[in-house]
Amino acid sequence: VGLMMPPEKYLCKQLHKAMDGIGTDEETLIEVLAPQTNEEVKKIVDCYEQMYDRPLAEHLCSETSGSFRRLLTMIIVGARDPQGTVDADLAVEQANQLYNAGEGKLGTDEEVFYKILAHSSFDQLELVFEEYKKLSGQTIEQAMKHELSGELYDALSAIVECVQMAPHFFAKRLHKAMDGAGTDDATLIRIIISRSEIDLQNVKDEYEQMYNKTLLSAVRNECSGDYKRALCALIGGA
C-alpha cells in the first residue's frame, strides 16, 4: 500500500500509527522526523492535518513529554535554518555553548542541546561538531552519551547521525529490523519506501560495507510473498 502513495502521505500514516492507541512508538517518531529538512517537514505537517483533521503538533504534544516533546515540536514547527546556512564564528560559539551545557558543568542543561540541534541547518551542525571535537577532544556523540539519556538522547543522536551520514543511520535501523528472531516488517517497509526517492542507493552501499552482505540478499532471506517482491523491486531499482 505504501508504494501507491506519495512519501509524505505514507510517513503521515506511520506517524499516526506510532501515536494511535495505547502507548507511543518513540523510535518511529524519531526515525521519521530527525532526518527531515524544513521543506519535507512542512509537507508532512500539511498532509497530516489534511488526513486526520488534527494538527500534528497537537497530537505529538499529547503523546510525548519533557525535553523530547520540546525537541519534536521545534522540528515540526520548522525552526531549523535552511540548508546551506553556515556561520563559522557562530559554530565556535555553539560548540562552546554545548560544552558548557554538558561536559563543562555539573549536571546537564538539556535545553541548550535540543535548541542548537533543532535550530541549526545540517551544514551548520557539521561545523559545530568539528569545533566541538577541537574544543573537547571528544566527539559530540561521546559527550552526549555521558550527558543525556532516554528518548531525548535517542532523538539527538539520530540527528547527529543524520547530519554526519544519514545512510549509516538507516542501514543500522534496517539491520536491527532484520536481526535476531522475527522481522520488524513495519520498519523495513518504512525505511525502504521513504528513502527510495532520496538516498536508497547510498543506504544499500553503506549496508553492504557495514554488514558484508547486500541489503537485497538480507531482505530476500527475511521476507516472503508479494511484500518481498515489492521490496526487492524497490531495492533492485535504487
TrEMBL record:
Keyword tags: Annexin, Calcium, Calcium/phospholipid-binding, Repeat
Xref: Pfam families: Annexin
GO CC annotations on file: cytoplasm; nucleus; plasma membrane; vesicle membrane
A GO molecular-function descriptor: calcium-dependent phospholipid binding
Domain notes per entry: A pair of annexin repeats may form one binding site for calcium and phospholipid.
Cross-referenced PANTHER family: ANNEXIN (PTHR10502), ANNEXIN B10 (PTHR10502:SF177)
Family: Belongs to the annexin family.
Protein name: Annexin
Organism of provenance: Anopheles aquasalis
Organism classification: Eukaryota, Metazoa, Ecdysozoa, Arthropoda, Hexapoda
